[in-house]
Amino acid sequence: MLYKLGGVKNFQIYKAFEKKKYKHYITFTVLFYRNSPFFSNIKLVSSQSKNRYITLKALRILNHSIGSTVIILSSSKGLITHKDALRFGIGGKVLAVLY
Q1: Is the pTM of this model over 0.90?
Q2: Cα–Cα dist 87/79, whole Å
Q3: Which end of the chain, N or C, is surrounded by fewer C-beta atoms within 10 Å?
């Protein structure tokens, strides 16, 4: 998703064996524009124990105040940004916020 948005230059997915089970890791290089990164912070919103959902109506209201922030949603269309969700006319589970 970040690669598709143009915020990540390259990435690598690998798994490591730790404490008798495999863990998956992702390393990536952030894209810089005029010595400033594409995003300065990633806030994970939903977890396995707490899921946060947003409706289309709430997404429309929120869109006016978030500026250049990108919200990543999980929806029936797969992983999409909030702009794609508005275009499709759907809400979904909020996974992360990039600002």
Answers
A1: no
A2: 14
A3: C
CATH of the domain at 90: 3.30.1490.10
Residue linked to tokens 């709430």: 58
- Residue among 50, 44, 81 nearest 66 (CA): 81
CA–CA separation, 98 and 40 (whole Å): 8
CB atoms within 10 A of CB 86: 16
Q: Which structural domain range is residue 44 located in?
A: 39-99
77, amino acid identity: K
Lowest-confidence segment of 29-38, 42-51, 56-65 by average pLDDT: 29-38
How, if at all, do strands 70-75 and 78-81 pair? antiparallel
Domain count, the chain: 2
71 and 97 part of one domain: yes
Lowest mean pLDDT among 1-5, 9-13, 42-46, 95-99: 1-5
